[in-house]
Design goal:
Number of helices: 7
Helix content: 10-25%
Distance between the termini: 29 Å
Largest sheet: 7 strands, antiparallel
Number of strands: 17
């Protein structure tokens, strides 16, 4: 069975090093071929089953800085930032060698494909240190009248990143900044909120405060803010820090948020937040 998820316009989506690495492929869509010269693989938490991990093999038509990704505490988000302008494929493989799904992300949108019978996966190696094999669509006619994947990979998986020094209980100075950020967001204090953010993020926020739909958009951001935040862990490395919190969303679902911060002019500022939700 072949399952398709419709491409969604990108505009609606806003809101230890490898010793041997080799991977490339070609994506065919309606007769047009996109060559994907670069690949990277890593382990991450299974988004559908708690306590399990999957291996994600990423193919892209733009360069991948493996060293930067190896050193990231959130490789999934780091890849999003790095390959924002790229065409990329994410091949998600479970521990038993089955394909969970195949994600496609382009400038025009994103989509996902799952099911069985429409591809052949030939794995020669699949553990927490290395992934090697090929993945190909079965129907050759899809090269001209659909979507066809032709991928090969032989990649060592990076180990745990060097996160730096653990932060004290509560997250220390960085944790205070994040809690202040949430407080300003809840109050609707735009100027106070901007002071907790990195220069680039603050400028983007303030530049749009006069927009006709700013009030509506800001209200949406407020509604998505973490409720009842509880500090879990954090690390600091030079002028960068990463903190993890748990809390709830507006519907009472459990949310885990990773906060990336950087030090600007001696003060800690929030650079990015990434959240995952466990539905009740």
């Amino acid at each position: 069975m072949k399952t398709w998820v419709r491409l969604i316009p990108a505009s609606l989506l806003l809101g230890c090093g490898a010793v041997f690495a080799s991977g490339s492929g070609t994506l065919y869509q309606q007769g047009e071929a996109t060559v994907l010269k670069n690949a990277y693989a890593f382990r991450l938490a299974d988004p559908f089953e708690a306590g399990k991990q999957i291996t994600r093999v990423v193919f892209a038509d733009q360069p991948i800085d493996a060293a930067t990704l190896d050193d990231s505490s959130d490789r999934d988000s780091a890849i999003d930032d790095m390959l924002r302008q790229a065409t990329r494929i994410e091949l998600n493989i479970e521990a038993d060698g089955s394909v969970q799904n195949v994600n496609l992300k382009t400038l025009s949108g994103s989509g996902s494909q799952s099911g069985s019978g429409w591809y052949t996966l030939d794995l020669k190696h699949n553990d927490d240190k290395r992934i090697e094999g090929t993945f190909r669509s079965n129907d050759e006619s899809d090269k001209q009248n659909g979507r066809y994947y032709d991928l090969a990979f032989a990649l060592d998986l990076p180990g745990a990143p060097n996160l730096g020094t653990p932060l004290p209980a509560g997250g220390g100075e960085q944790g205070k900044v994040y809690l202040s950020h949430l407080a300003m967001l809840k109050k609707g204090d735009i100027d106070g909120l901007a002071k907790t953010m990195s220069k680039q993020r603050a400028e983007q926020l303030l530049a749009h405060r006069g927009d006709a739909d700013f009030k509506m958009m800001f209200g949406f951001i407020q509604s998505r803010a973490l409720r009842d935040p509880k500090y879990v862990k954090g690390h600091v490395k030079g002028d960068a820090a990463t903190l993890e919190y748990t809390g709830k969303d507006e519907e009472g679902n459990v949310v885990t948020t990773t906060v990336s911060m950087k030090r600007e002019a001696g003060a800690w500022k929030i650079e990015k937040e990434a959240s995952s939700t466990t539905l009740n």
